[in-house]
Amino acid sequence: MMKPVVFVTRRIPEVGLSPVREACQMRLWEGELPPPKDVLLREVADCDGLLCLLTDPIDAEVIAAGARLRVISQMAVGVDNIDLKAATARGIPVGHTPGVLTEATADFTFALLMAAARRVPEGVDYVRAGKWRTWEPMGLLGMDIWQATLGIIGLGRIGAAVARRARGFAMRILYYDPARRPDLEAELGVEYAELDDLLAQSDFVTLHCPLNAETYHLIDERALRRMKPTAILINAARGPVVDTAALVRALSEGWIRAAALDVTDPEPIPPDHPLVSLPNCVVVPHIASATVATRERMATMAAENLLAGLRGERLPYCANPDVYTARA
Ligand code: DGY
């Protein structure tokens, strides 16, 4: 029997690649950067399956070009780069990788929060520049984390995992989510707040919502102006949840104290962008899930979804489950 043809848009950990290589005719894009759109369109044209990353724009055009496409499997939990409606309309299930990156991302959210609050990158730069000449009573003063108020926007898996860590810092924890979570309120001692109240009361505001029409530019000029001038914004969700131009002004003009960003808009952010040179902004290259074990789990899960779809089975982790009801 002919093996199904699959296109893998980048080299991923071998634990994910080897089962795909074994079961399929695998074509692997070896570029360091994502395949250009014309390559993507050409490759999907005769593919049964696509294993992609969050950097690949899987829009309606790509989905339409994949005349034989039976499954799309993304090695990421977020699927805002994929036109789910178009995939569902074509009856194509889309796999993703929820759960396995929750703890790594929550750990890293705290790394960002602490780096910005305690000015770690500035301290490193200071030492490297040879400026450390003595212990300074007023040098590089930061913000307390212990017993501060943390505002979590989006209390899904990652938001809840961040709340669990915040309890260890005796923080007061507020959350805003369109779906109120009484179960987590009881379990984690988090308090629901309307968005404006959360923004006004929090010392740290951390974003853990998906990017969609409702959350695009959720943190805009109005939201930033509601925050405390001493507050710190953390974004490990998606860049466009924050209005970048407004954030540059907020950081330059002191509407808020600092920001720490794992994700940006645009992404990648050019090195000459103002956010990169502002001393009160920590920017890192979308690495919240970047641990060896987490990326291996993500790759394994992406392969499992892909192979299940090719066998005509329900995907273990499907981002558009209505594809199954639509089919029935
Ligand atoms: C995801 O999986 O959506 C994350 O952004 C990857 O770090």
SSE topology:
Layout: E1 5-8, H1 14-23, E2 25-28, H2 37-44, E3 49-52, H3 60-65, E4 71-74, H4 84-89, E5 94-95, H5 102-117, H6 120-128, E6 149-153, H7 157-167, E7 172-176, H8 182-188, E8 191-192, H9 195-201, E9 204-207, H10 221-226, E10 232-235, H11 244-253, E11 258-261, H12 274-277, E12 281-283, H13 292-310, H14 322-327
Parallel strand pairs: 1-2, 1-3, 3-4, 4-5, 6-7, 6-9, 7-8, 9-10, 10-11, 11-12
The protein binds (2R)-2,3-dihydroxypropanoic acid.
Description:
The structure is a single chain. This protein has 328 residues and is of the alpha/beta class. The protein has two domains: 5-98 and 292-327, NAD(P)-binding Rossmann-like Domain (Rossmann fold), CATH 3.40.50.720; 102-283, Rossmann fold (3-Layer(aba) Sandwich), CATH 3.40.50.720. It is 38% helix and 14% strand. It contains 14 helices and twelve strands. The chain has helices at 14-23, 37-44, 60-65, 84-89, 102-117, 120-128, 157-167, 182-188, 195-201, 221-226, 244-253, 274-277, 292-310, 322-327; strands at 5-8, 25-28, 49-52, 71-74, 94-95, 149-153, 172-176, 191-192, 204-207, 232-235, 258-261, 281-283. The strands form two sheets. Strands 8-7-6-9-10-11-12 form a seven-stranded parallel sheet, sandwiched between helices. A five-stranded parallel sheet has the order 2-1-3-4-5. Helix 1 (14-23) runs parallel beside helix 13. The longest helix is centred in the C-terminal third of the chain and has 19 residues, at 292-310. The chain is globular and about 75 Å long. It starts with a strand and ends with a helix. The relative contact order is 0.15. The chain binds (2R)-2,3-dihydroxypropanoic acid (DGY).
